[in-house]
Design brief:
This protein has 132 residues and is of the alpha+beta class. It is 29% helix and 36% strand. The protein has a four-stranded antiparallel beta sheet with strand order 1-2-3-4, with helices on one face. Strand 2 and strand 3 form a beta hairpin.
Length: 132
């Protein structure tokens, strides 16, 4: 009986490790998901940005699902972490995003936040939070 128990423990640990190895680096942590999301928005790759959301289905992509970055914005990126709380398979993150406009010759920063869930494919955004 004990032999079978050890067998299942070993098989389960290999299966669990196999799932973790399939997670792409950009979705390995809540912060890496957020960095990737803003990086894709900055490159105006909206379809790829939407892959950061839980429940995104590539075959149902519609460019109207995401608000485009204004043309005046020349650079848009994740700036810095404010706070990150992880509890089980859920995370709450607040951070700064910076953007630059050549036309206005200015760099500005705004605050943003998200709730994320750990899925089989890594950390994905489940809810956008607008800090007050």
């Amino acid at each position: 009986m004990i032999k079978y128990l050890w067998f299942f423990i070993i098989v389960f640990s290999f299966c669990k490790n196999g799932v973790q190895e399939n997670i792409l680096p950009q979705f390995a942590t809540p912060e890496s998901t957020i960095k990737y999301y803003w990086s894709m928005l900055g490159k105006r790759n909206y379809k790829e940005a939407l892959t950061c959301f839980d429940g995104f289905l590539e075959n149902q992509y519609n460019e109207k699902d995401i608000f485009p970055v204004p043309d005046e914005v020349d650079s848009l990126q994740y700036d810095s972490l404010i706070s990150l709380k992880i509890k089980g398979k859920k995370a709450l993150i607040y951070y700064r995003v910076s953007f630059y406009s050549k036309r206005q010759n200015s760099k500005k920063i705004f605050l943003s936040g998200d709730r994320l869930v750990l899925t089989k494919s890594g950390w994905k955004i489940s809810e956008v939070i607008i800090p007050k």
